[in-house]
Amino acid sequence: MATIEVYTTPTCPYCHAAKALLADKGVDFTEITVLDPAQRESMTQRANGRRTVPQIFIDSAHIGGYDDMAALDRRGGLDPLLKR
User: Fold this and answer.
1) Contacts for 27 with CB less than 8 Å, ≥ 6 apart
2) pTM above 0.85, yes or no
């Protein structure tokens, strides 16, 4: 299985959608809440300057936000990354 990290905030609807998509895929992921400024700065550096949430990483590769991950799934590219 892949290592999945999702940077989120508690009230973000796109964060909830991203977590639901990953849950539907049956994969485990680590959620990192970025309410702490240091965590947000770490996310921003890893995500090439992107400050919005969610930011999703699979095996350290930056996937992007929810829309990016959903588009990848529609193209059939998400499952291979998840190693399903």
Assistant:
1) 1, 2, 4, 82, 84
2) yes
Residue 57's SS3 state is strand
Tell me how far apart the alpha carbons of residues 81 and 61 are, in angstroms, rounded to a whole number: 10
Q: Do 5 and 29 contact (CB within 8 A), yes or no?
A: yes
| The two structure tokens encoding residue 65 | 């936000």
Tens of each residue's pLDDT in the chain, 84 residues: 899 999 999 999 999 999 999 999 999 999 999 999 999 999 999 999 999 999 999 999 999 999 999 999 999 999 999 986
Phi, psi dihedrals of residue 60, rounded to the nearest 5°: 70, -5
Residues 12, 65 contacting (CB under 8 angstroms): no
